[in-house]
Design brief:
- By secondary structure, the protein is α/β, with parallel strands linked by helices.
- The protein has 2 domains: 182 residues, Rossmann fold; 101 residues, Alpha-Beta Complex (UDP-galactose 4-epimerase, domain 1), CATH 3.90.25.10.
- Helix content is 40%, strand content 15%.
- α2 links the parallel β1 and β2.
- α5 packs parallel to α7 and α11 runs antiparallel to α12.
- The chain is globular, with a radius of gyration of 19 Å.
């Protein structure tokens, strides 16, 4: 199978497209790839369902943005014709996501004859598929299996919980000095910083020592949300109380945010349920190997993003 660099070296376009960029995982990947625009890639295309602030920020950095819906297969194929490489991040914000069928974003890569394909899913998908909002992700892996033979390069990247989900509840921490989530505070999990995940994905694309195939990324440390609250208290210099709440309370909290769709809120809740069930506690060194250094640990993440967890000042 070809490498991404060999594909790009033979292309007159040198273009890449990332789906699901109105969600934080897609946004983070697009942001990392835009750092290499004009070097590794001539153009970076992104797709979205809902035009959020994330999309505006990426446009400002030079991305070409295309609104796509899973219901319009021909438009997806047409967009893919612009790219040599397609990175598929599940478009959780798409209204169709919970009903299935959005794996068309993977199948379209074969129809559009793109040269390279990377599909991002989740760890332990067989167990995660027990949860309604996570079940559609399994279809992406099935679509990857039937599509990978139609492209010159294909990789599947499975990720754990993203620590950046805490940004969605930053107002709880900043204003209420609480962390209210529907998850067992002692349930163990590992998580990655989205910037680390995005850099690892870029390295998969450009470092030829990483061969096409399946990669499972985990965090470098085992956490609990009880530990998260204690660490936040120490870093921010004020007591952060953890309280377990019902799922509907978090869904309503997140859905009141204009930037978060109901689908995304339900998806986050089911990821937290997966944490409670112990489905996301695996730990390995793959992320460290891909980064060539230790991933950012949780305390460093809090210190780096402290301003986002403080009350807004006028």
């Amino acid at each position: 199978m070809h490498s991404i660099l060999s594909i790009l070296s033979l292309s007159t376009r040198k273009t890449i497209l990332i789906t699901g960029c109105d969600t934080y995982p897609g946004y983070s990947i697009a942001l990392e790839l835009l750092r290499h625009k004009g070097k590794t890639f001539s153009d970076v295309y992104l797709t979205y369902y809902k035009e959020t602030q994330l999309i505006h920020l990426l446009k400002q950095k030079g991305a070409h943005a295309i609104r796509l819906a899973a219901s319009d297969r021909s438009a997806i194929v047409s967009a893919y014709h612009k790219a040599d490489i397609v990175v598929v991040v599940p478009p959780v914000s798409d209204e169709q996501f919970m009903h299935g069928g959005t794996e068309v974003f993977v199948d379209a890569a074969g129809e559009a004859n793109v040269s390279g394909l990377v599909v991002c899913t989740k760890l332990n998908i067989e167990q995660l598929a027990e949860l309604p909002a996570l079940k559609p992700i399994k279809a992406y892996e099935d679509a990857y299996e039937r599509t990978k033979g139609k492209v010159k390069y294909a990789s599947l990247v499975r990720c754990p919980l993203h620590l950046d989900m805490l940004w969605l509840v930053r107002q709880q921490i900043a204003v209420e000095h609480k962390l209210r989530l529907p998850v067992d505070p002692q349930a163990k999990f590992t998580a990655i910083i989205e910037a680390d995940g995005a850099r690892a994905l870029y390295n998969i694309l450009v470092d030829e020592k990483f061969k096409p195939g399946t990669y499972e990324l985990t965090g470098s440390e085992v956490l609990t949300f009880s530990h998260v609250a204690r660490a936040a208290s120490e870093v921010f210099g004020r007591a952060i109380e953890y309280a377990k709440v019902g799922k509907q309370e978090l869904i309503e909290y997140l859905s009141k945010r204009s930037e978060v769709s109901e689908n995304e809120a339900i998806f986050v809740v089911d990821m937290l349920e997966a944490v409670s069930r112990g489905y996301l506690s695996a730990k390995n060194n793959t992320l460290k190997d891909m980064l060539g250094k230790d991933p950012m640990d949780f305390v460093s993440y809090l210190e780096h993003n402290a301003k986002d967890f403080r009350p807004k000042t006028k």
